[in-house]
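[recover] target loaded
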């Protein structure tokens, strides 16, 4: 976090400082990618602090910049007025879970916050935007939190959706109630904001709960395919092979279904031709193979941390598909002698 004794705002100078900082991050990461690829969130905060301190010389912020540890929001503040929140991802996209809606740890006096987002994977890149311009929605972890999307276009923020400016919402006595009221107005007959009425959640979840039957065909199909990505045991003969996906659907995706088993029919056989040989395989194997193109794309969009959690192994960003092939092939060996690993890595 960055602090200054000078409380007079210098907007243009601060934006120029951020522009120089962003340029230096891009230049350094391009010339020394090996070092940057090893940066964790906290180490990037230190890097940003050092660069901002250097660029603050001969500006209204010279001598005022300090790095503050702890859980304060934002990570960096300047002149006790401006702030920089630092976020990172190891995946090749510009999305993440942000800070609490309630902003209970916001530093006193901080009025203008900017988001510095580091994409710490090949290709390494950085973006910096006003905080409120890259908040797309609200999800629930242990408390309601904003979703970050650094690529949002003008007019697409969460505050545009609820028609309340960020500064107005954050200063309300109970901003969560305002957000709840918004989501309740959007509810369909088979949806509810159950997360708000039954306490906190340990996992990220949607703001409303829906029945599987209310999903569009595209939504349902995407969830089934993501199930193939996250839960290799779906191809096994385990009695509890649908348990983890059922919990994930309800607690993370906010979707309730009475029997997920019906979405992955075990009955029926299909024929697959591989290297001149015909194989008679369970229908679920054929369904997975038919979805392979979407699976490959989806695997690249899922956070490394999420894959690590659900696969229960260390995930290497450079071999995600190969690791997935190994996992599903190991599970499928319980129900077929079809060489699935060989086919998938074809």
């Amino acid at each position: 976090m960055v602090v200054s004794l000078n409380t007079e705002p210098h907007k243009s100078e601060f934006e120029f400082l951020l522009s120089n900082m962003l340029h230096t991050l891009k230049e350094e990461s391009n010339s020394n990618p090996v070092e940057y690829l090893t940066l964790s969130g906290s180490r990037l905060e230190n890097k940003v602090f050092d660069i901002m301190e250097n660029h603050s010389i001969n500006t209204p912020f010279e001598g005022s910049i300090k790095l503050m540890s702890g859980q304060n929001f934002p990570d960096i503040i300047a002149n006790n007025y401006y702030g920089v929140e630092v976020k990172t991802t190891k995946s090749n996209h510009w999305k993440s879970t942000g800070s609490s809606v309630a902003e209970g740890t916001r530093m006193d006096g901080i009025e203008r916050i900017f988001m510095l987002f580091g994409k710490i994977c090949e290709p390494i890149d950085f973006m910096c935007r006003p905080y409120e311009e890259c908040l797309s929605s609200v999800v629930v972890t242990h408390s309601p939190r904003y979703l970050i999307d650094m690529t949002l276009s003008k007019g697409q923020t969460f505050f545009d959706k609820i028609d309340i400016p960020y500064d107005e919402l954050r200063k309300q006595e109970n901003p969560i109630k305002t957000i709840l009221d918004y989501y309740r107005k959007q509810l369909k007959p088979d949806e509810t904001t159950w997360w708000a009425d039954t306490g906190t959640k340990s996992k990220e979840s949607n703001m409303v709960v829906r029945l599987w039957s209310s999903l569009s065909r595209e939504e349902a199909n995407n969830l089934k395919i993501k199930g193939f990505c996250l839960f290799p045991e779906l191809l096994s003969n385990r009695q509890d092979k649908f348990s983890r996906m059922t919990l994930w659907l309800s607690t993370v995706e906010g979707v309730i279904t009475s029997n997920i088993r019906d979405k992955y029919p075990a009955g029926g056989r299909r024929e697959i031709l591989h290297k001149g040989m015909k194989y008679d395989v369970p229908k679920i194997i054929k369904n997975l193979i038919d979805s392979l193109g979407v699976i490959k794309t989806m695997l690249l969009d899922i956070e490394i941390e999420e894959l690590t959690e659900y696969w229960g192994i260390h995930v290497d960003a450079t071999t995600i598909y190969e690791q997935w092939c190994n996992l599903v092939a190991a599970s499928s060996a319980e129900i077929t002698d079809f060489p699935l690993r060989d086919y998938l890595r074809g």
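[recover] notes: The chain has 14 helices and twelve strands.
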